[in-house]
Specification:
Elements lengths: L7 H7 L7 E5 L8 H12 L7 E7 L20 E7 L9 H18 L3 E5 L7 H15 L3 E7 L6 H15 L1 E2 L8 E4 H10 L2 H4 L9 H7 L4 E8 L11 H17 L1 H4 L6 E2 L2 E2 L14 H14 L1 H7 L2 H11 L10 H17 L4 H6 L2 H14 L5 H17 L1 H9 L7
Length: 420
């Protein structure tokens, strides 16, 4: 919530001298107007935490609580007060990534104004476990001294594949941390990390601009801060429309590649990776994942191989283009995209984004058929796989990103001279 846009009553509460120990942003639309339910969840989450005297909860389209709401004491001498404020970020409930990014910034801006010790964001759809999620995200910061708590979800095989195929292995290869979800969407940050984010991106002060979540993990790691994961369980999310992912790729990967460019001096020095400390226990996958139309994905890839050669040729070397043409001729049942090929594609698109050889938006949208080709290949490989086999498959891809990191470093340093 940009403080300048707050109502007079909201501004008076935000600017009270005692600030807040904790700020929690709840961004889903399903809690709109349910102030009682939100406060009950906050009370339940705070009941297990120590050292909290005042918390502010920002809810998308929530109802302003004109006075602090004091929960019943739960074995403490002084119960923490909880204030509920309305998050006024435009369209914060919309699933469009840009709207979520604006909401993130609004929550972080308010936390900075209140000088909060910790700030958590819950952007996933509400469920019965919401209080546990709040607790699991902020407890490592408030009580254990961590600076970033990233989520670790229990997923079906065809969920979270943008993280699986690009975001998570890219973070691991570049920054050396095994994070399942380096961009959230649910996460918590310390005051120290929040200040680093504010220093590098003044737009956070105003609660507007690009995707601050794209740089949270890299800023923490490159800043030498303490990073961990918390097992949150299953995350409710709508089914993916696989034939309309171009906008999603552009909105998510654009800020990620910008951050890769900004942190280039740091990630080129990092070697290897390490497991990230985790809290909580993973839950078992009990439901059957959705079915994807592999044949349509392969057809999209084949069409791209016919119509996008000119664009791909601007960023992909001849050897990669040759492999893609061969792959496009395979029958569907034998369609497999090698990990090494996919990794080089991702790295070359990151480099192409940096060089601005064509419109960045156009470039990222042209990645769509290649992304669908990887999804189709993955779906065929894990069609009958169990959870352990799927984890092994994801680990194989992550190692391929690490093994091929010298390729990215070489092309990054000598984009004109290096020709594989």
């Amino acid at each position: 919530m940009p403080v300048d846009a707050a109502s007079q009553a909201e501004r008076e509460q935000i600017e009270r001298p005692d600030g807040a120990d904790l700020v929690v942003g709840i961004l889903d639309a399903e809690h709109a107007g349910e102030s009682g339910a939100i406060l009950a969840m906050a009370r339940e989450a705070l009941g297990g935490l120590t050292g909290i005297s005042r918390a502010v909860v920002l809810c998308n389209n929530g109802v302003l609580s004109p006075d602090p709401v004091v929960p019943e004491a739960q074995g403490a001498d002084v119960a923490p007060s909880v204030i509920l404020l309305n998050l006024q970020a435009p369209d914060a409930a919309e699933p469009h990534p840009r709207s979520r990014f604006q909401a993130y910034r609004s929550v972080l801006a308010t936390a900075a104004k209140l000088e909060a010790r910790a700030c958590a964001v819950i952007a996933s759809a509400p469920h019965a476990a919401m209080p546990q999620w709040i607790y699991r995200l902020v407890q490592p910061i408030l009580e254990l001294g961590f600076d970033l708590v990233a989520p670790h979800y229990t997923r079906h095989r065809m969920e979270g594949l943008l993280n699986t195929s690009i975001l998570s292995p890219l973070c691991r290869a570049l920054y050396g941390e095994h994070l399942q979800n380096p961009m959230g969407p649910d996460f918590a940050v310390s005051a120290k990390l929040l200040q680093l984010l504010l220093d590098q991106d003044p737009g956070v002060h105003r609660g507007n601009g690009g995707n601050v979540a794209a740089s949270i993990a890299s800023t923490a790691i490159c800043g030498g801060l303490q990073v961990c994961e918390s097992h949150l369980g299953a995350r409710a999310q709508p089914p993916t429309d696989w034939m309309n992912v171009s906008s999603l790729l552009a909105e998510v990967l654009g800020p990620v590649f910008l951050d890769v460019e900004r942190q280039a001096a740091s990630w080129q020095k990092i070697r290897g990776s390490r497991p990230t400390p985790g809290f909580g226990s993973p839950e078992e996958v009990t439901e059957v994942s959705g079915v994807v139309d592999v044949h349509r994905m392969i057809e999209s890839f084949q069409l791209g191989a016919q119509t996008l050669q000119e664009i791909w040729g601007i960023v992909l070397p001849p050897t990669t283009l040759l492999e893609l043409r061969r792959l496009s001729r395979l029958p569907p049942d034998h369609f497999r995209m090698p990990d090494e090929l996919w990794v080089r594609i991702v790295y070359d698109f990151a480099l192409g984004h940096r060089l601005r050889t064509i419109s960045r938006d156009h470039l990222l949208r042209s990645l769509t058929p290649l992304y669908l080709g990887w999804i189709a290949s993955y779906a065929l490989q894990v069609e009958t796989a169990g959870p352990a086999e799927i984890e092994a498959r994801i680990e194989q891809l992550s190692k391929a990103f690490e093994t091929s990191k010298p390729y990215l470093v070489s092309r990054w340093r000598w984009p004109d001279r290096f020709n594989p």
